[in-house]
Write a structure and sequence with these properties.
single chain; about 575 residues; alpha+beta; Growth Hormone, Chain: A; 3 domains; 5-stranded antiparallel β-sheet; 3-stranded antiparallel β-sheet
Length: about 575
């Protein structure tokens, strides 16, 4: 209850001035603000409980679940490159957004079809014994059913398995030696599994048509020299984080207390609200976002089918390809590798043959910033996977009824910090800029990398305060998210701005595509990092919390050093990289 009240207070304090500012902007921004708010609500609501759904409902082991999670998030950032191209060439941004929203609603609603949970058994001496699980996420309890005796908790013992509290006359010994037993998953419903991958594929394809295009139509609302353009994007960014904040608060709570279907279903309802608002708000867009050639789009191409319906049909059919890819993280990596070779080869050729020295250095700086962003987002995006599981398994979450926080709700910290601190950072950069002391982008990226590394260092420090239950005080996770968020505010808006400033006009779209491609790489590499934290589980519950904490501490310490080291390198290079900007030259 206290958490919800605090969320309402934060929302009111930050929303009132934002809504007042919206009145001074084109009316279409109001439509896009709420459409993107609900889209992010649906995305982050689903993301907050996805890793737990994979490990506790379908009973995938940590490494498999984190690989599938990484494939999903990589494709979410990769497909907007195709969706943006289709919208620019044929469909127009408004129709692309509406089509993407329909796919998203279908995908999120399909996620709510739970089906029968998977079942895990222990085989010993030719006999099978069933694990019984109750509850979800941090409230999950698992025991092993022993016929004639009862259901007992299990834990590690001398490399094997201990059945705690087992009576002496039971059919099983209290300690099973390593190698004397097998644990396997049975009765994983193939129909529900395929529905899961279909739902993820629809969401990926929907985001592909919506994400880049809704940002583009925001820019179309303003003239090139309209002073309201930058503040308009700031308000739009606020809407994104407002949706993410309440998604973490509400979908995670329903997923824990009511059922997976409720958490995913609420995400779908949110997306449906965004779709309805966008369709009804079409007149407020004042003609922006329409197809480049409406007549050609409606002209029959294949029998009675025109180009528009062919695009829609290809989008739906494309979910079959995504359905295959999302199940295989390695295949996604090969796709990313092939795409990167093509894009970087083209940019390298362009730099050598089409650029003068100044343009070459500017474009080179853009590529350096993109490489640094891969490191940052690889660490930052542990939030949905390893840090989410760390919150569930090894964080002392308040659970006293009045002050209760679930593991997915912890992810709301990032969005809450942005709602609070984004105006502060905007003011600081403007204040420094007026005094000609605004740090160069390479310096800001270096600070961001130091902060994301420091966030993981805080978690390693917090592990020394863990009690006998191997749970770290929540304060340290909250502080880690604070460092990560302030790092994000130093890197994300700066990076987007610099891509347009540093790129020659002929390759701006390609450079922006490379920026999004780097985010996809970060998600893919992030899955590999998360797999390093994999713990041994039984029916979705960690077998040895102490060992899990030690693993998290080791991996978080390692990647924290990687982040800090990359930050030091960027700071050291920033005086030279600053010269590549040529800020006062044509």
């Amino acid at each position: 209850m206290i958490v919800i009240v605090a969320g309402v207070i934060i929302t009111l304090l930050t929303c009132i001035p934002v809504l007042l500012q919206l009145r001074t902007h084109p009316r279409g921004l109001f439509v896009l603000f709420f459409a993107e708010m609900w889209e992010r609500f649906s995305y982050y609501g689903m993301r907050g409980i996805l890793i737990f759904y994979l490990t506790q409902h379908f009973l995938y082991d940590d490494a498999s679940a984190q690989g599938q999670y990484g494939a999903y998030t990589s494709l979410v950032y990769l497909l907007p490159l195709i969706g943006g191209f289709v919208a620019d060439r044929w469909l127009g941004t408004r129709k692309a957004i509406a089509f993407g929203a329909v796919l998203l609603v279908a995908g999120h609603m399909a996620m709510g079809i739970e089906g029968r949970p998977a079942e895990q058994n222990l085989t010993y001496g030719g006999a099978k014994y069933t694990f019984v699980a109750e509850g979800r996420m941090e409230a999950r309890k698992v025991c092993l059913t022993v016929p004639g005796s009862g259901c007992y908790a299990v834990g590690p013992k001398d490399g094997g398995l201990e059945i705690k509290g087992l009576p002496a006359n039971a059919v099983l010994p209290p300690v099973l030696a390593k190698g004397s037993y097998e644990i396997g998953v049975e009765k994983r419903d193939p129909i529900t599994s395929n529905i899961l991958y279909l739902a993820l594929s629809l969401i990926i394809m929907g985001v592909g048509f919506l994400k880049a295009n809704i940002s583009s139509i925001v820019g179309q609302l303003y003239g090139q020299d309209d002073p309201r353009r930058d503040p308009g994007f700031t308000l739009y960014y606020f809407g994104i984080n407002l949706g993410a904040f309440w998604a973490s608060m509400l979908c995670g709570y329903l997923g824990l207390k009511v059922g997976w279907w409720a958490g995913f279903g609420l995400a779908g309802i949110g997306m449906a609200a965004g779709f309805i608002g966008f369709v009804l708000g079409k007149p407020l867009l004042e003609g922006h976002g329409e197809p480049p050639d409406p007549v050609a789009l409606k002209k029959p191409v294949l029998g009675p089918l025109n180009a528009e319906w062919i695009i829609y049909a290809c989008g739906v059919a494309g979910t079959a390809v995504v359905w295959m890819l999302v199940q295989h993280n390695q295949a996604v990596g090969l796709l990313l590798g092939a795409g990167s070779v093509v894009v970087l080869s083209y940019l390298g050729w362009f730099m050598l043959t089409k650029c003068d020295g100044k343009e070459r250095e500017r474009l080179g700086l853009a590529l350096v910033l993109i490489a640094a962003s891969v490191v940052f987002w690889t660490l930052f995006e542990q939030a949905g996977s390893s840090m989410n599981q760390f919150a569930e398994r090894n964080t002392a979450l308040p659970q006293n009824g009045i002050y209760t926080i679930t593991a997915p709700q912890v992810q709301s910290f990032n969005s809450a910090y942005i709602l609070i601190f984004a105006p502060v950072f905007a003011w600081v950069w403007a204040w420094l800029g007026k005094r000609d002391r605004d740090p160069n982008p390479a310096f800001k990226f270096g600070i961001a990398l130091l902060q994301v590394g420091a966030g993981f260092g805080v978690l390693v420090w917090g592990a020394s305060f863990a009690g006998p239950n191997f749970r770290v005080p929540l304060f340290f996770l909250a502080l880690a998210y604070l460092f990560h968020t302030t790092g994000e505010l130093c890197l994300s808006p700066v990076g987007l701005s610099q891509m347009t400033k540093l790129s020659p006009a002929a390759v701006i779209s390609t450079v922006m595509a490379t920026w999004f491609l780097s985010s996809s790489w970060a998600q893919w590499i992030g899955a590999i990092v998360a797999q390093m934290t994999a713990a041994e589980t039984v029916a979705g519950q960690v077998l040895d919390p102490g060992k899990a904490l030690a693993t998290y501490t080791h991996v978080f310490g390692l990647i924290g050093l990687w982040g800090a080291g990359a930050g030091v390198v960027m700071l050291a290079l920033s005086p030279w990289l600053k010269k590549w900007m040529h800020p006062h030259e044509g």
